[in-house]
Amino acid sequence: MSSTAVPISPERFAIAIADLPLANLHLKASELRNSIRHLQYSNWELRRFAEEGDQDCLDAIRENREVIRRVYERILLLRREVERRGFMWGDSEVDEKEEMDGDVERANGEGAQVNGGASVNGVANGRAGNGEGEGGSLTDDELARRLREQMEQDNDGDGFHL
Predict the structure, then answer these.
(1) CB-count burial class (<10 Å; 0-12, 13-18, 19+) for 93
(2) What angle do CA 6, 11, 43 make, to 5 degrees?
(3) In this structure, is the dihedral angle defined by the CA atoms of residues 142, 143, 149 and 153, taken in order, positive or negative?
(4) Which pLDDT tens digit goes with each residue over 139-159?
(5) C-alpha distance from residue 46 to each of 39, 137, 161 (Å)
(6) Which pLDDT tens digit goes with each residue over 83-104?
(7) What are residue 118's DSSP bridge partners?
(8) Whole-angstrom Cα Rg for the chain
(9) Rounded distance, CA 156 to CA 104, Å?
(10) Are 102 and 126 contacting, i.e. CB atoms less than 8 angstroms apart?
């Protein structure tokens, strides 16, 4: 972030979302969760260099963690707005308060959640997986192996697949 850019305050964010249609509140929450996942993944990638003493990576991780904290705060504001209108926060939507309290590692941006459930560091939904499909969790080694396999398969020249 630029040293001159100041994030919108939570109070102003709450005012800004007050007039949004319900669907837009849910869409914004989804966008924010996606941003968090990208920041968590970035931290996961930077961690190796930070552990080797790279100060720039350490600073980037620290800044990403602060951004993640602010984004979680905005998701909570979106949830409060939905509930203020008398609607329920959807079953498929994660309880950010529980996520922040119950899984400190992810809330701090040290783990990167993939596909909304599995974590690249083997922790998902507060439990470690064995990398064998149990609960959708993968170990670091298993994820790296699968990504390498997928990248090798994708190098067939037939385009980009989502």
Answers:
(1) middle
(2) 50
(3) positive
(4) 777 777 877 777 776 555 555
(5) 10, 21, 26
(6) 999 998 875 555 554 454 433 3
(7) 114
(8) 18
(9) 40
(10) yes
Q: Are 124 and 135 in contact (CB under 8 A)?
A: yes
Q: Evaluate if residue 43 carries a pLDDT over 90.
A: yes
Instruction: Write the burial class of residue 121 (CB in 10 Å: 0-12 exposed, 13-18 middle, 19+ buried).
Output: buried
Phi/psi of residue 122, nearest 5 degrees: 85, 5
State CA 50 to chain mean position distance. 20
Q: Which regions of the chain does DSSP assign to beta strands (E)?
A: 113-114, 118-119, 123-124, 127-128
Question: Which bin fits 129, alpha (ψ -120 to 50), beta or left (φ > 0)?
Answer: beta
**Residues making up the chain, counted from first to last:** 162
The token duo for 76 is 């909570």
